[in-house]
Every structure is written in structure tokens, then in C-alpha cells.
Design a protein that fits this description.
single chain; Spore Coat Polysaccharide Biosynthesis Protein SpsA, Chain A; 3 domains; four-stranded antiparallel β-sheet
């Protein structure tokens, strides 16, 4: 069976979510809606025909970049209505072959079962309000909260669609057909058809770590990897906890067991979710600084120059290259970002390389956390600071890393507003020749100067911290691939920060 995915339409009901991308790329559960559909039906379907129109080039480039392992064909339609493009899609389906037709703004439950022997059309219905419903095995234009049509249809034979119009309403056409129909009850279905329905979803749940599973069991937190790469990361994390605790570092959870990794639960909230006034933020930052100073004093070594060059330049460029085809203007020598003509490091790589070689190659390693942003820093009920989710490596070096990287991560949190970006508190406009974006404020920026002044001598200059900060944003772009807008903002912000750095220090 082949599946036709209707990914066309302007997506106007999704408001700002579709300003720069089609609705099929709106992220749900750590991946675009379209990728959720791929995953749900990969074992039941032997090929997908995706219909696109609005932001067609964005969709095309995104799929070519990130859907390389999917069996799909993308067709373009310029007609209006949810029937648009279906006739073109049918050209890629063999005669007498069954067909699934699904709208790209719904995600059916994983355990969906349908009747392979039914001769006619099975119409997906669920418990949500829709102006169309199935009553007495007929598709009717009657509102229902129990049998509302969700936008999933299974035809036993391609020929059932011989007379489908090239534009207009598919649902109206189907209601006029005489072949047998029946309701296909779907108990659980994620509806992403409107901005309001999307807001009801917990879209930020486990967003940054889709490859991990977290379980809270009383006073214990159990963390396990869902991929081989994640399992490797957790082994590094265990190693880091053992070393840090063995050296007497108290500002972290206790490691209870290694397999699965089990740590003590901190009774409190991460700092990002804690409501603090200016004084509270200042006190908390002081505690973070004191804790990091202590951490860095526990173990030191000479820096690995190869690690430094690889982490700050080679890996950054390679990550950007891997996503570049999906990012608008990535092939331009310069990009206009927030009114500033910015050097594009993807095209002018030597500029970034020169900055790294001249600025970042002289440092030392310490025991470091590697990801001490606000969402990875806890405040317990007594106001004590605890770090969680350590990186556990720098390049090929375990447990230790560039001491400046920790300070750059704190800078990234309070000045760069990463945690606001992480929950999508940003705006992005991709114009015909320019980029405009803005990341919401977490109201920590007033502490920037204090942070920079409190960085110990030899652990990072302002010039070094700002350059690493720009590189962190550039590298983040590939990690944020599941949301087109997030990926683009990370990339453009990194370019803007790097160009600001060039202007300030050169």
C-alpha cells in the first residue's frame, strides 16, 4: 500500500508557526509532523507521496536534507482545496493497489489497525469536533464530537479515486460517491490543525533530549539511552559523576547505580522554571559561579590542541554543512541579519578558522560540566545550586575540558537567552533577501558584566568567551534540526554574534 500525504495548504490557522515553513514541518514530539507520520506508518506503507505547495522549496530542501532514509516522492501542486495534487500523486501508484490518504496535520495512534479486506473506503473518525462525520456508514456534512472526520482515508483500490477532482474539496467529492464506506474509529489522534490545538500539546516535553528516557521513582531519577549514541553519552555521564563525587564536589546529585544510571532526585526546580526577582537571580548566579570555581579547581591538565581545533572549528563547520541545504541563504557569501551585512562562515570558512586559531588555542583543561545552562542547573528548596546533565567529555578527552567552555555556557544562558530560545520564545522572519529575528528575554542580561568580571584569571577573557558563545550557537543549529525555525534562528544568531565579535575585536 502507498500513502498520499496531503501537505499542501497555506496553514493560515497555524498563525506564526507557518510564516516560514509549511504546516507539515511544525514540530511535535521532537520531530516535524510529517516525520511523525513517516514513523507511524513506515511498517505498513511501502512508499509515501507527499503533496506540497505553500513553501514548497522549504519542504523540498528540508526533506532532501533530513529524510534521506525515507521512501518518498514529493509532488508540487498549485491548485486550491484539499483535493489539490491528489490526481498527480496517483500517477505514482500502481493500478489496483490500495491507497491511504492522510492530511499532514494529524498524527494517528501508533496502534492503528484497519480492515485490509474491506471493499470500499474506511474513513478515520475520532472524538473531536468536526463539521464532517460518518453516520450510518455515510460521509455527511454534519457536525459531530464523537465521529468527527480526522483526515485519514483508506481505499481498497486506486480506482476508487478515478474521478477525484484536481482542486476543491476532497471531502465533498467523497460524500457524493456510491461505493461502500465505513467509519474507522481511532481512539487516540493528535490534532494539529489549528494554533489552539497545537498550544494544547506539550510540545516542549523532553524536547532537547529525544534520545533519552527519564523515569522518576520516588527520590531517584533513572536515565537510560534510547539509541546507541545516547547510551555512550550516559556512560560518559556516569564516569563524570564518579570522578566529580570522588573528588568531593557536592553541587551534583548522588550517583546511586550505573546501569541503568540512577541518581538522587533534587527536591526543587531547574532555575529556568524558578521565579526569581533581580536579587534572587544575582544570588543564584553567585552560587553558580562559586560552584564552577570549585569544580574547576578539582582537576587540571594541559589542553589538547587538536581537540580545541576540532571542537571549535572542524566539528562546527561539518555540522553546518550537514544542514546547509535546508537553510535559506546558506550559499550566500554575505547574509543580511537584523539589518547587518554578515559574513557567512559556511562560504567563508577561513574567517572562522582564523578566529579560532588566533584566539582559542591557548588554554588549559579542568574538570568541567560542559552544559551548565539554566535548565541544567537546579535550585533545591533551600536555595542550593546543583548541576545536572554534565557533558562528560571535550573532543576525545573524558571528564575534563576547556575551562572557558563552562563560562561561555553560563554566558549563553544569561546573555544569549538560550533557555528562552529552547521553549521557542522567539520570532523569525525570512524575507526575500534578509533575515529578521528576535529571541525573548529571560531578564538575566543585567548580570552579564558581573559574570565576566567574576571569571577567574586564566579561565577566559571576554574576547574568548564571546567567540565561544557565537560558535556554540552555530553548532546548536544542527541539534535543533527538528524545528525548521529553531534551526534557522540558531544559525543566524551564531552568524550575527560572530560578526559582532569581528567588529568588536578586529
Amino acid at each position: 500500500m502507498k500513502a498520499i500525504i496531503q501537505a499542501g495548504g497555506l496553514g493560515t490557522r497555524m498563525l506564526s508557526l507557518t510564516e516560514n515553513k509549511p504546516k507539515a514541518l511544525i514540530p511535535v514530539s521532537n520531530k516535524p509532523i510529517l516525520f511523525n507520520i513517516f514513523e507511524q506508518f513506515r511498517d505498513k506503507i511501502d512508499g509515501f507521496i507527499v503533496i506540497g505547495d505553500y513553501k514548497y522549496e522549504v519542504l523540498d530542501r528540508y526533506l532532501l536534507t533530513f529524510a534521506k532514509n525515507e521512501r518518498y516522492i514529493l509532488v508540487h501542486s498549485s491548485a486550491k482545496g484539499n483535493a489539490a495534487g491528489i490526481r498527480s500523486a496517483l500517477d505514482f501508484i500502481s493500478d489496483d493497489e490500495p491507497v491511504m490518504l492522510i492530511w499532514s496535520d494529524i498524527i494517528p495512534a501508533k496502534n492503528l489497525k484497519f480492515d485490509l479486506d474491506f471493499k470500499g473506503c474506511q474513513i478515520g473518525v475520532s472524538d473531536f469536533s468536526c463539521s464532517w462525520s460518518v453516520q450510518n456508514n455515510k460521509l455527511v456534512h454534519e457536525k459531530s464530537n464523537k465521529n468527527g472526520v480526522i483526515g485519514l482515508y483508506i481505499f481498497d483500490n486506486k480506482s476508487r479515486l478515478d474521478t477525484v477532482p484536481s482542486d476543491g474539496s476532497f471531502t465533498t467529492w467523497l460524500s457524493q460517491q456510491s461505493f461502500p464506506m465505513k467509519a474507522l474509529k481511532i481512539d487516540k489522534c493528535t490534532d494539529v490543525g489549528t494554533f489552539e490545538s497545537y498550544q494544547k500539546l506539550d510540545t516542549n516535553k523532553d524536547r532537547c533530549r529525544p534520545y533519552n528516557h527519564i523515569e522518576i521513582d520516588g527520590d531517584h531519577v533513572i536515565k537510560s539511552g534510547l539509541t546507541e549514541e545516547a547510551k555512550t553519552f550516559i556512560k560518559r555521564e556516569v564516569s563524570w559523576y564518579k570522578l566529580a563525587l570522588g573528588l568531593g564536589f557536592k553541587n551534583i546529585p548522588t550517583l546511586i547505580s550505573e546501569n541503568p544510571m540512577t541518581i538522587s532526585r533534587i527536591n526543587g526546580k531547574n532555575i529556568f522554571l524558578t521565579e526569581l526577582d533581580k536579587t534572587g537571580k544575582e544570588i543564584t548566579l553567585d552560587k553558580m559561579i562559586d560552584a564552577l570555581r570549585h569544580l574547576h579547581s578539582l582537576a587540571k591538565s594541559d589542553a589538547n590542541s587538536w581537540d580545541l581545533y576540532t571542537e571549535y572549528f572542524t566539528k562546527t563547520i561539518n555540522r553546518l554543512i550537514s544542514i546547509s541545504y535546508a537553510i535559506p541563504f546558506s550559499g550566500n557569501e554575505f547574509i543580511s541579519i537584523n539589518g547587518k551585512k554578515c559574513i557567512n562562515v559556511l562560504v567563508q570558512q577561513s574567517v572562522l578558522r582564523k578566529a579560532v586559531l588566533e584566539t582559542l588555542m591557548h588554554t588549559h583543561y579542568t574538570l568541567y560540566h560542559g552544559d551548565c545552562q539554566l535548565t541544567n542547573t537546579m535550585l533545591d528548596n533551600e536555595g542550593n545550586v546543583f548541576f545536572i546533565d554534565p557533558r562528560g567529555y571535550f573532543g576525545k578527552t573524558k571528564n575534563l575540558g576547556d575551562v572557558r567552555y563552562d563560562w561561555a555556557k553560563v554566558y549563553y544562558a544569561i546573555n544569549g537567552n538560550f533557555d528562552q530560545f529552547n521553549v521557542k520564545n522567539f520570532n523569525l522572519h525570512i524575507g526575500k533577501s534578509e533575515i529578521e529575528f528576535n529571541i525573548g528575554s529571560g531578564q538575566w542580561e543585567f548580570l552579564t558584566k558581573k559574570l565576566l568580571k567574576k571569571i577567574p584569571n586564566g579561565e577566559g577573557t571576554e574576547k574568548e568567551i564571546k567567540l565561544i558563545h557565537a560558535i556554540i550557537w552555530l553548532s546548536l543549529a544542527s541539534h535543533a534540526w527538528e524545528d525548521f525555525d529553531s534551526m534557522c534562528v540558531a544559525y543566524y544568531n551564531g552568524l550575527k554574534l560572530f560578526n559582532d565579535w569581528i567588529e568588536e575585536y578586529n
